[in-house]
Amino acid sequence: MTDVFLALRCGHWPTLIGSWLHLTVSFMVWLLLGALSVVLAEDLHLSETQTAIVVALPILGGALLRIVAGWSSDWFGAKPTAVVIILCEFAVVCWGWMGVARYEELLVLALLLGVGGASFAVTLPLAGRAYLPAHQGLVLGLVASGNIGTVLILFLAPRWAQAIGWHGVFGAMLVPIALTLVLFMMTVRDDWQGVRHQRDMEWWHHFAGMIRQPKAYWLCLLYGVTFGGFVGFCSILPVYFHDQYRMDGVTAGSLAALCVLVGSVIRPLGGHMADRVGGLRALVLVFPALLGLMAIVGQTNRASVAVATMMFAVGVMGIGNGVLFQLVSEWFPKEIGLASGVVGAAGGIGGFLLPIWMGLLKESTGTFQAGIWLFAVVVVGAWGLAAWVQRQEVEAQKSN
Prior knowledge:
By secondary structure, this protein is mostly helical. Helix content is 86%, strand content 0%.
């Protein structure tokens, strides 16, 4: 623990705190409809597929906007980009508070809420540039633990909705967004000078070099499983617990928040572990553990077993997320903003697909278990890819 504190003192820790806060509130915005999914389904009389689309669209929007935000982070600077993102969040949430009443409008709102997911592509570069390369895994893992905002919104939104309605929840969210903007402007160090030099001299060269490297595609595929699984289950777990095990909306949201809390808090451990033993070696351990846990969830009919096992499974995904972003900083140190955006987008696409197939299979089979087993099959493929990439890296080191 002493080593961790010493490492954090080696950089600009206010930037780390401001970046974490930005990501935390942005995740609350990003997963807001997932947290309200049970209430929205009852109020607007949505089918399983319609509900799945509503909770999945913000993830798709975030996936697309992460690429834009990653480019903007490297081109214009991460801090200005982050300020624009949080201003957009305020505007979209304000519309949700005052104007959305029909399913068609809800779909547009859902896509626009993806702006919250774009925060990932700017907060990680901000914090990463404030610290030495030796501490990147730990620092990026700490910032990325800002996905604890998902826990907060899953726990709070159903309770707020009972008291003030789901429109009122959007109004309440305007307060933390505004406070975050002020605190972010006060604490985060501007990285404009360093980024301007990179923009003028090297950005396009680094971009062309990155997209020619197979490592970029490996990271995208693997992150599509770990983060895609994490954020996809974050959005669908309230509906899963409510429909599969007949829990009320508040209980389902609270248990979903508990599961996500584990995955959020444990994420820095993944980055720290990757710093110590190597990212690829850590990944080869993560995927079989995840496979075993998903197999248990896929075959149990007991709510207590499903909740406990899902909690551990989401925790393992959180570790995998921390490991993978240590690899991003190690393999693409000069284009970390762009790489964070592209890899993060791949994770968002995975998170978009998971609720969609869960909803479709639930509507066609009457149970979510088929969707769980499909995810287990995807994990098998990711395990095989991670083992193959590790073998390729070992052979490359031997040849050198």
